[in-house]
């Protein structure tokens, strides 16, 4: 009798273990599979004159729009997960009208009209950003000392990871960014399922790493954001964010960043909805940041020579 009971308990444990793994593998696949959404807004809809381009990336061709600047500054715009480059059209139209900024709005691999690819939460998306930077280097009219980067959600993670490696990115403004992917997935899992984050979130990340070949558990933007200094960072934290773990994420990113840095915490605003709900305030704050740290920063092309060189006539 005891042997039968022990076998039954063992079988129940084995079946439970298998079901747990199957569930976590399924959730990991969902986590890595982007949803392509059609473009619902294009530059012409906002009165922008944009060039349609294809940018080669290690992950395939990236669909993009290039808007030439009037003030010499170009912004690289990184959209959120399951969205596309159209997410940035209204903001760029306003920033261009305000101060003359140009932009590259592009689709990450697996999104919009770009080549296929999985979501890797910044690990490989930063390669797409690097490809955009390389493409800009080949455009002789672009001053590479006047390139900034903007990011929403997934794009905020990619922007942070990329900017830590690419000194050409002279300043960064992000909204609804994650500070630590492992922690955020655990919070999200519990928030949407009511189940404990351990062991579920840990197993989902584990299987996500197996399926993607990416160390998802090591994606910690808060650990690298300090490397951007003395380049400026602007962190926008939506305090009613249903995706990012706010106010923790924004405050942790801000605490980990070094000067110059700014933090804008917005009550009663959900995930990347600051511009939608407060467009004038968003443009004023982001525009002022860019005016000071990108458009207003000295450029190697135009900066005066040091006094000793001027005196010697060199």
Task: Outline the structure in words.
The protein has helices at residues 2-32, 89-99, 125-137, 154-163, 181-193, 197-212, 221-224, 248-256, 274-277, 279-295, 307-312; strands at residues 51-57, 60-67, 74-78, 102-106, 147-152, 169-175, 232-238, 261-266. With 314 residues, the protein is of the alpha/beta class. It folds into 2 domains: 1-32 and 181-211, no CATH class; 41-179 and 219-297, Rossmann fold (3-Layer(aba) Sandwich). An 8-stranded mixed sheet has the order 1-2-4-3-5-6-7-8, with helices on both faces. Strand 1 and strand 2 form a beta hairpin. Helix 1 (2-32) packs across helix 6. The longest helix is centred in the N-terminal third of the chain and has 31 residues, at 2-32. Residues 302-314 have low confidence and may be disordered.
Keywords, separated by commas or semicolons:
2 domains, Rossmann fold, eight-stranded mixed sheet, 43% helix, 11 helices, elongated
Q: What integer value in Å does the Rg equal?
A: 22 Å
Helix content: 40-55%
CATH topology title of the largest domain: Rossmann fold
According to DSSP, the number of beta strands is 8
Count of runs of 4 or more consecutive helical residues: 11
> Which architecture of the largest domain would the CATH scheme give at its second level?
3-Layer(aba) Sandwich
- With strands numbered from the N-terminus, the spatial order across the biggest sheet is 1-2-4-3-5-6-7-8
- For the record, what is the CATH homologous superfamily label of the largest domain? Alpha/Beta hydrolase fold, catalytic domain
Sketch the topology as an H/E string, one letter per element: HEEEHEHEHEHHHEHEHHH
On the 0-100 scale, what is the average pLDDT? 91
**Highest CATH level, the class of the largest domain:** Alpha Beta
CA(first)-CA(last) distance: 97 Å
- Low-pLDDT ranges: 302-314
What is the 3D form? elongated
Largest sheet: 8 strands, mixed
How many discrete structural domains? 2
């Amino acid at each position: 009798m005891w042997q039968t009971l022990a076998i039954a308990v063992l079988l129940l444990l084995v079946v439970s273990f298998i079901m747990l793994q199957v569930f976590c593998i399924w959730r990991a696949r969902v986590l890595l599979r982007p949803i392509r959404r059609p473009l619902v807004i294009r530059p012409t809809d906002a009165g922008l004159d944009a060039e349609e381009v294809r940018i080669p990336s290690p992950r395939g061709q990236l669909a993009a729009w290039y808007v030439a600047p009037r003030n010499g500054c170009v912004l690289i715009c990184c959209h959120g997960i399951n969205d596309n480059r159209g997410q940035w059209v209204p903001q760029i139209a306003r920033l261009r009208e305000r101060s003359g900024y140009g932009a590259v709005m592009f689709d990450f691999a697996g999104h919009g009209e770009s080549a296929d690819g999985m979501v890797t939460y910044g690990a490989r998306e930063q390669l797409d950003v690097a490809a955009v930077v390389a493409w800009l280097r080949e455009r002789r009219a672009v001053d590479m000392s006047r390139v900034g980067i903007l990011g929403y959600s997934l794009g905020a993670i990619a922007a942070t990871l990329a900017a830590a490696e690419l000194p050409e990115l002279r300043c960064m403004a992000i909204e609804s960014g994650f500070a630590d992917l492992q922690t955020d997935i655990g919070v999200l899992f519990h928030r949407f399922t009511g189940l404990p984050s351990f062991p579920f979130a840990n197993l989902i990340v584990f299987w996500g790493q197996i399926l993607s070949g990416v160390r998802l558990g090591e994606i910690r933007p808060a650990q690298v954001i300090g490397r951007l200094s003395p380049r400026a960072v602007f962190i926008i934290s939506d305090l009613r964010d249903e995706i990012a773990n706010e106010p923790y994420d924004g405050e942790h990113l801000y605490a980990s960043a070094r000067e110059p840095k700014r933090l804008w915490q917005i009550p009663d605003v959900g995930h990347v909805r600051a511009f939608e709900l407060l467009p004038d305030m968003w443009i004023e704050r982001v525009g002022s940041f860019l005016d000071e740290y990108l458009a207003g920063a000295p450029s190697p092309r135009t900066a005066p020579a040091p006094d000793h060189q001027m005196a010697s006539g060199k």
